[in-house]
Each structure stands twice: as C-alpha cells, then as structure tokens.
Amino acid sequence: MRRTKNEAMETRSAILDAAELTFFENGVSRTTLAMIAQAASVTRGAIYFHFANKNALFEAMLERGRLPQECFVGLDELMAAADPLDRIRANAIEALEFISLNTRTQKILTIMLLRCEYVAEMEEMLVRMRDADEEMLGTIRFAFQEASRRGLMAEDWTPDSATTTLHCGMAGLINQWLRSGFGFDLVAVGRRMVDSLFDSFRAPPTPA
C-alpha cells in the first residue's frame, strides 16, 4: 500500500526523534543506522528513503533545534539599536535563557559538544558548524565595531578582542553547564558573567 505524504512525514519525524535519543545515549560514532531503525521501529530502508547516510541524518537532526547562534539579531537591527552594546548583551542573556528552557536544544548541544567526534564522515559537519559560528561572530564583531565608532568602547578593548572574549566566555559556560549535568543556574551565573564583561567593554562616563 502506498504511503501518504503525512505518513511519510510522520516516519521521518520518528526517525529524527530516534536519532536524537540514540546519539544522546550512545554517542554519534557508536550509533549505527540499525540502532536508529530499531529505536524508531522502522527498517533501515526507511531511513535511506529519507536520508542519504548518517551524516545527513545528523544534519537534519540539528536543523530541527534552534541553536544559541540563532538568538543573535541581524545587522539591520544592530544598526538601528540605540546602544549596540546593550543590544548584544541582551542577545547573550536571551541565548542563555533559551538554552535553559529548551530541552531539545539542551540535548542537541550535548550531542554536538560532548557526544560527537568530528572525524571521518563527521568532519564535514565541523566545517559547517564553524561557518555558523563565524556568521554569528561576524554579527557580534559588527556590534562592537559600531560601539567603537560611537565612542562607547573602553580603550583597552578592540572589537576583535571583545568578540573573542565574549564568545569564549559563553562557550565555556555552556559547555561546563552541560558537563556538570546542569549543576548550576545557567542564567544567573551567565548574567553575572555577561554583565561583568560588558561593564569592562563599555567606556567610562565622560566627566561633566
């Protein structure tokens, strides 16, 4: 009997759910398509109908979840912001709040950061993730450049050094939170870190 479009979409969704769970529990390198098929109660042929290989399945799984990089605004909104430092600071905190509340994003980040070795067929995914990071970092760097142009940046900071410091701080915080099994309040700790960084980034008030 020929499957309907809705049935095909349901099967695809079930495969992605099973892949997410199996990658999370076993790690990407130790997960086989046969294991995913069993978890989804489908055949391997059904997986190949929807996905060319494990790499394509992994990529589709990532696309289902919103990642922290996507919380940052675009260049047009930054240009219109009254204070680009306040805007990018708010984005950083919004990203932490989103991660703390979104179970799927937490699981996907755990898979990406702690359950995956980016070698062999997965090396291509590392390149794509770096490209996504670079797009986000370009937006953040632009915000700091605009802040510097408006005289809002402290003299000790350049747009490049501020971008790198913020990125490393956020990445390290999220990674440690995941490694600790959510062992601390991500938003509370993150807010203090972000506020401290942006206090340092901002030029002191001009004396009256």
UniProtKB/TrEMBL annotation:
Keywords in alphabetical order: DNA-binding, Repressor, Transcription, Transcription regulation
InterPro entries: DNA-bd_HTH_TetR-type_CS, Homeodomain-like_sf, HTH-type_TetR-like_transc_reg, HTH_TetR, Tet_transcr_reg_TetR-rel_C_sf, Tscrpt_reg_MAATS_C
Domain HTH tetR-type: start-end pairs: 9-69
PROSITE patterns cross-referenced by the UniProt entry: HTH_TETR_1, HTH_TETR_2
Pfam families found in the cross-reference section: TetR_C_2 (PF08361), TetR_N (PF00440)
DNA-binding region: 32-51
GO molecular function: DNA-binding transcription factor activity; transcription cis-regulatory region binding
PANTHER family listed in its UniProt record: HTH-TYPE TRANSCRIPTIONAL REGULATOR ACRR, HTH-TYPE TRANSCRIPTIONAL REGULATOR RUTR
Protein's recorded name: HTH tetR-type domain-containing protein
Naturally occurring in which organism (per UniProt): Aureimonas ureilytica
